[in-house]
Amino acid sequence: MSTENEGTEVPPAPSAPPVPVDTPAASPQAGSAPDANWPPPPPAAYPAPGPQTADGGGQPPAADPTTQPPAADHLTTQPPAAGPVSPQQAPDATQPLWGAGAGSAGAAGVGPYQQPPAAAPKPPRGGRGGLIAAVLVAALVAGGLGGGLGYTLAKNDDNGSSTTVSASDSGGDFKRDPGTVAAVSAKALPSTVTIEAESSNGEGGTGTGFVFDTEGHIITNNHVVADAVDGGKVTATFPDGKKYDAEVVGHAQGYDVAVIKLKSAPSNLKPLTLGDSDKVAVGDATIAIGAPFGLSNTVTTGIISAKNRPVASSDGSGSQASYMSALQTDASINPGNSGGPLLDARGNVIGINSAIQSSGNGGFGTGQSGSIGLGFAIPINQAEYVAQELIENGKPVYARIGASVSLQDTTGGAKITDTGAGGSEPVEPGGPADRAGLKPGDVITKLDDRVIDSGPTLIGEIWTHKPGDKVTLTYERDGRTRTVDVTLDSRVGDS
Question: Which of 2, 176, 195, 319 has the most CB atoms less than 10 A away?
Fold first, then answer.
């Protein structure tokens, strides 16, 4: 998941709709009986060929088929590959809902990360603009014709009676059944906020968050508030328009989770109910709430399309990568949805919307990549644990095995490197991996029952656990497959 696709170019539309052509009547055959209806009556006059202006005026000049709209800029740089997708396969892109970056070498829990590669080249200019223009003109002409015809029929058939049917209940009195999207949204929206984060030099953007507790803590993504961590400004706006200043309580770059706290928090906060992401099944209904492209309080729906999807992403600023074993959903999420809740059909939070895989084409003139139905959310069971650590200690706590693994794109497993981070030992002396007998060159292929196909996948799976958890690692050495139990250690902070 490392590069953005270039969009499929659409052929330019014709400069004008085709002109109707009269079908010539067949001439009587020689020797046949004369046709009493011959010659046929003259055909009705066709409207003037070509598109017309909205006021019924003459034909506008034809569009130049060689002129094409400019290609949209890419949103971000590209993220590192994660999971089974490799550069040799069809190119695609996984990116946080603000950005994407890359890391290429590091440790399972600790280690260096390579700076993200340069942004992909812009896609070729497409011919979609001409097609849209032609379709719009045709729609206007058809709309004008329909309006005129409707007026004529109404005038000729006006007998003073009305055919209007009124609903028995007004919209305000209509009650939505519990469990419907409307009912779930009505309950969840008041506890969802639009976050604006700004650095000390004025840079920043918009994301989403949701109420975690009655004390005013709000959960969001780290990459939403990263710009405001050192001397910046954060605000949170509720759907009723009330806006509050906030401060960053703690942030976990590796998990891509952050917690902010409202200053002068209101006393009537209603935290969203947290679900159990471990019990989510593929096909379950999902509801996403956020501020895509700055459009606050937007609700979209979909399903869980996959679980335990290994995803590595970054905010595009050259920071270290974030890793997750994500919930995948086809609910439409876009830049600005970051940090917002992914709900189940009962309105319980099952994940935090964090990243999308995009074709790389911008939308609405923004130059930002948009949804193609592949969104990724941090499972709430993991996010809840991280948030509680941030509230209590201000720093994240990561589970680890104490071994450096390669982050190169592979499909064979996570290989313990020959050299550790910063020239350190690849297997930390006395650490969990060392105590379990793991050595450089060992290739870890499973963690419990989860297949491990790469280093990022291993890191993401380890981080779904807590320090002190015991896991079973399956690894290969010298052509033989072995298993060993490992008790995970801990690391505090993002360093």
Answer: 195
Residue type at position 325: S
Look-up of token digits 């979209």? 300
Detail the DSSP E strand segments found in 100-242: 105-107, 192-198, 204-211, 217-220, 233-237
DSSP string of 263-322, one letter each residue: TT--TT--PPPB--GGG--TT-EEEEEE-GGG--SEEEEEEEEEEEEEEEE--SSSPPPE
Positions of E strands within 108-191: none
The catalytic residues are 223, 256, 338
Give the phi and the psi of residue 216 in degrees, each rounded to 5.
Answer: 105, 10
The closest alpha carbon to 116, from 3, 272, 17, 6, belongs to: 3
Q: Can you list the positions of beta strands (E) in 330-442?
A: 341-343, 349-357, 375-379, 397-400, 404-406, 414-415
Angular region, 308: left φ>0, alpha ψ -120 to 50, beta rest = left
**Which tokens hold the place of 104?**
């290429």
- 238 pLDDT above the threshold of 60: yes
Q: How many residues does the chain have?
A: 495
| CB-neighbour burial class of residue 157 (10 A; exposed 0-12, middle 13-18, buried 19+) | exposed
Phi-psi region of 131 (alpha: psi -120 to 50; beta: other; left: phi over 0): alpha
What pLDDT band is residue 359 in, cutting at 50, 70 and 90? low
Please enumerate in sequence order all residues whose Cβ is within 8 A of that of 493, keeping only pairs 6 or more positions apart, or say none: 395, 396
For residue 369, the one-letter residue type is S
Q: Residue 319: pLDDT band by 50, 70, 90 thresholds?
A: low
**φ, ψ at 211 (rounded to 5°):** -70, 125
d(CA 252, CA 459): 15
User: Rounded distance, CA 56 to CA 330, Å?
Assistant: 43
On the 0-12 / 13-18 / 19+ scale of CB atoms within 10 A, 131 is middle
Task: Using alpha carbons, select from 326, 305, 439, 323 the residue that is nearest to residue 378.
Answer: 326
